[in-house]
Amino acid sequence: MLSGRPPSTELGIDQLLERLVSGSSRQKRSTASALEKVSEQLSGKAVVALKAYSPEGDEWGAGWILQILQRHQPKALEAIPGVSNGWFQMPSSCGIDYTALQQALLHEQFEQADRLTSSALRQLAGDQAVQRGYVYFSEVPAMEALDLTTIDRLWIAYSQGRFGFTVQSRLLSTLGGRYERLWPRIGWKKDGVWTRYPGSFQWCMEAPEGHMPLVNQLRGVRLMDALLQHPGLASRS
């Protein structure tokens, strides 16, 4: 007879929530799938369950609980304090409101979240970047570290830890710093031609790790490299 702990799909709601907090990375991922199957039970536990997480952090367990409710129990989501404005805190050193970004990520509207991220990066780069519609790599070092951290935290929290600048940075490190090996994951075709549509880029949770947010690399990798090397992000990688 086989012994040992039953698979996560057989665990009770309290055990699933505990494993989502303290389990290994692999356990957390399997628990995420199992937790979605008991969304009705989760709706009665969510307020208490979220107390295990900090709104100042980027623990994706909290983001996933919120996303499950958004998918299956939206009325229960409305009862959670602060969710309408964003459960995770969104500090900014220059007065940018990231509520729309957090709401887009909560609703898994990743294309909209990507566009909001690009807009925020232009604002952080300054008026000239806003007017021209894109950011120069030379404008990145002066960007506010707090804001880049906020953007990164939100992407991580609402993607099961799969998307975000620091996710891309860690992935690049495992690939020996070779951008040509990273490109297929972030939307480049094999011939180096960038495309958002139709099939190269995916706006969903099932996209490859590190797939989002998009960074315009039509002019090479210098912009992305500058972002990933920014002290505010490098310290989180």
Structural write-up:
- By secondary structure, the chain is mainly α.
- The chain has two domains: 8-78, no CATH class; 106-234, Arc Repressor Mutant, subunit A (Orthogonal Bundle).
- Helix content is 50%, strand content 0%.
- The protein is built from 14 helices and no strands.
- α1 (13-22) runs antiparallel to α2 and α2 runs parallel beside α5.
- The longest helix has 16 residues, at 110-125.
- The protein starts with 12 loop residues before the first helix and ends with a helix.
Features:
single chain, mainly alpha, 237 residues, Arc Repressor Mutant, subunit A, 14 helices, globular, 2 domains, disordered N terminus
Short characterization:
With 237 residues, the protein is mostly helical.
